[in-house]
Protein: Adrenodoxin, mitochondrial
Amino acid sequence: MIAVQDATLRACDGTISCSTCHLIFKKEDFGKIDSPITDDEIDMLTLAKDYCDTVIFEIDMRKRRL
Structure:
């Protein structure tokens, strides 16, 4: 993982309706995530100020495994 937004900054209180709790992974680590990112997640993640191909919501990562 190369960058982490402070999880206490969840502007949406964990409802995954903002992009303040996103995580950015190295490509090799992102490829290990056990379930794909949905189109709805991608739509919301593109609002993150530092969006890239290896970003995921911190709150949503709890449902996934590396």
User: Anything to note?
Assistant: Helices lie at 27-30, 39-45, 58-61. Residues 39-45 form the longest helix (7 residues). Strands lie at 3-4, 22-24, 55-57.
